[in-house]
């Protein structure tokens, strides 16, 4: 029997609650003939990736993880800053997807202008630098922050309430036609947020894994 392709989804922070949330969010993408979707935690990572220092600190550990993994056919870096993505791509001939890049590209297929829900205001300049590199700032309606930590977004009881409030601002004030959730820890809130806002809400990890599945299907 031929080996099924494998997609390795790497949570670059060391918070297992975030990784478990990813597993739950990715269950709808699994099917009998499809790739194995495996989520793992980068033990060397900080508990939450919330600063440029955090982003820079995990680039080399991520590359080493990718280089040392011989049983994966594609990789997904499940952090909205896409940390270490270029270094990781240098370290393998297999495709490496970043969730920010994938999430934004998916949003562009759903709406003329998109909004992003960030965890903290300090994340926004980092995200904006990335969007400028992608030459996509003209399609950004706005980005607004929850002012919560990664851990709070993954497990906090009031996270969804706050996300709905920020999402409404992006929709009603900024004119966003689609919302991208700017943190992997928000994964479990996608469906109720979409229902509350009445517009497409993109889970960027789902977007990246969907792209990986399509890439492997064509390659196979």
Written overview of the protein:
The mean pLDDT is 93. The two termini are 15 Å apart. The strands form two sheets. This protein has a four-stranded parallel beta sheet with strand order 2-1-3-4. Strands 6-5-7-8 form a four-stranded parallel beta sheet, sandwiched between helices. 44% of the residues lie in helices and 16% in strands. Helix 5 packs across helix 10 and helix 8 packs across helix 9 (190-197). The longest helix has 16 residues, at 204-219. The protein has 220 residues and is α/β, with parallel strands linked by helices. The protein has ten helices and eight strands. It has helices spanning 16-26, 52-57, 59-68, 85-90, 99-108, 124-133, 150-155, 159-172, 190-197, 204-219; strands at 6-11, 36-41, 74-77, 96-98, 114-118, 140-145, 178-181, 201-202.
How is this fold's topology laid out?
Layout: E1 6-11, H1 16-26, E2 36-41, H2 52-57, H3 59-68, E3 74-77, H4 85-90, E4 96-98, H5 99-108, E5 114-118, H6 124-133, E6 140-145, H7 150-155, H8 159-172, E7 178-181, H9 190-197, E8 201-202, H10 204-219
Parallel strand pairs: 1-2, 1-3, 3-4, 5-6, 5-7, 7-8
Helix pairs in contact: 5-10, 8-9
Main sheet summary: 4 strands, parallel
Number of strands: 8
List the total number of helices: 10
Overall pLDDT metric? 93
- N- to C-terminal separation? 15 Å
Structural class: alpha/beta
Strand line-up in the sheet with most strands = 2-1-3-4
Strand content: 15-25%
In short:
The chain is of the alpha/beta class and 220 residues long.
Keywords:
alpha/beta, four-stranded parallel β-sheet, 44% helix, globular, 10 helices, 8 strands, 220 residues
């Amino acid at each position: 029997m031929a080996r099924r392709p494998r997609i390795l989804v790497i949570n670059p922070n060391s918070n297992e609650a975030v990784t478990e949330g990813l597993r739950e969010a990715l269950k709808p993408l699994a099917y009998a003939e499809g790739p194995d979707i495996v989520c793992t935690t980068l033990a060397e990572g900080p508990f939450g990736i919330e600063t440029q220092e955090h982003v820079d600190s995990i680039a080399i550990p991520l590359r080493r993880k990718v280089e040392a993994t011989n049983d994966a056919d594609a990789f997904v870096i499940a952090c909205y800053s896409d940390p270490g993505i270029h270094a990781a791509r240098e370290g393998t001939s297999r495709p490496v997807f970043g969730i920010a890049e994938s999430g934004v590209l998916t949003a562009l297929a759903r709406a003329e202008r998109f909004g992003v829900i960030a965890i903290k205001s300090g994340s926004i300049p980092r995200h904006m630098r990335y969007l400028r590199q992608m030459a996509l700032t003209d399609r950004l309606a706005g980005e607004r922050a929850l002012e919560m930590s990664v851990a709070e977004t993954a497990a906090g009881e009031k996270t969804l309430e706050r996300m709905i409030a920020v999402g409404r601002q992006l929709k009603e004030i900024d004119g966003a036609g689609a919302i991208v959730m700017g943190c992997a820890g928000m994964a479990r809130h996608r469906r109720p947020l979409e229902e509350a806002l009445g517009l497409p809400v993109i889970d960027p990890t789902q977007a990246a894994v969907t792209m990986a599945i399509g890439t492997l299907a064509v390659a196979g």
